[in-house]
Amino acid sequence: MANKQEQKLWKIGLTLSVGLCFYFSVQAWGISVGVTPTRLEITGAPGEVVNQYFDVVGGDKNSTRIISYLGDWDLDSNGRVRFLTEGENPRSATPWVKINPAEFPVAPGNKRRVQVSVTIPKDAKGEYWTMAYFEARSNSVLKTTGVNMAGRIANAIYVVVDNGVEKKGAITGVRGFFGYPKGFQGIIRFENRGNVRLFPRGRIEIKDHTGKLVTTIPIEPQTVFPGSFRILTVNKGMTLKKGEYVILAILDYGGERLVAGQTTLKVAD
Question: Rounded to two decimals, what is the model's pTM?
Answer without folding.
Answer: 0.83
